[in-house]
Here is the input.
Amino acid sequence: MSVRTLHEIEASIDRLNVHDQARLLQYLAPKVASAMLSTEDSQVSQDPATAWARYREVADSLAATSVPGAASLTESISEMRR
Here is the structure.
């Protein structure tokens, strides 16, 4: 298996359609959550309102780094939630 840079991986993800990006997020979310829980267990809130507020903060941060004119994964996921 070849070693890929983060930039190459991001470029590959950008070429995926929105449906496949959502599937990738579905695959990665439990892995990221598990990693965060194991290292920051004391900082994780059990309050759903707090969790959604944090989600929106992260989503806004990701949206700020999106390519202008292109639908971002964050926008797509937010649209699906509405």
User: Anything to note?
Assistant: The chain has a mean pLDDT of 78. The CA atoms of residues 7 and 14 lie 10 Å apart.
